[in-house]
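Here is my example:
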Amino acid sequence: MLRLSENPNPRWPADRALLDDLGQWWVARVKPRNEKALAWELARLDVGYYLPMIRKRTIRRDNGKPRKSVLCIFPGYVPVVGYEEKKADILRSGRIVKMIRVIDQERFVAELENVRRALEHEMELGLHPHLAVGLRVRIVSGPLQGMEGLVIDLDQPDKIFLNVEMFNQAITVRVSPEQLVPVEGQH
C-alpha cells in the first residue's frame, strides 16, 4: 500500500486549470486498480490528466489501529488531456481497457470542476455509484456558491448530489438548506 505522500498529484500539470484543456479531454477506462499507476505514467509522458481522490480513514479489524488510504473517487476512470498527440505512448502502458471520446466537453469540464471545488474546500464528500435524479438546486452562498446539484430526498435537503455523467456516478456534499434555491424551469 502507498504512503499518503506516494500518491500521484490529482492534476497534471499541477497548476493547470481544467478549463484550460477544453476540447482535448478523453477518458481512459483502466484495468482494475490501475488509476494511480496510469497517472504516474501520464505524468512521466507529460500528458495532462485529472484524478480526483479522497482520503479515507478506517480502523483495521486485525489490530484496531487506524489506516489512512487515498482512494480514487471514480474507480476505473482517468480523464486524460491530449490523448491523440501521444496515443501510442499512452496505450503502451498496458493499463487501459479503452479510450472514450468526451463529446460534450463543456458539460464534462463543468462536472469535473464541481468535484474539484468540493475537494478544494474539503467538503464532507460521499460517493454515489449511480447518477442521481431529483430536484435541481443552486447553491447561493458559501464556498460552493454557483454550483448546481440535485436533492433526491426532501427529508435530507442538505445532501446535494453532483453528477458526473461520463462516469455514470455522483458525489454528495453536505450544504445547509438555507444555502439552496430551486433552479427555475424544471419539470
Observations:
- The chain has a mean pLDDT of 93.
- The longest helix spans residues 105-120.
- DSSP finds three helices and 13 strands in the chain.
- The radius of gyration is 17 Å.
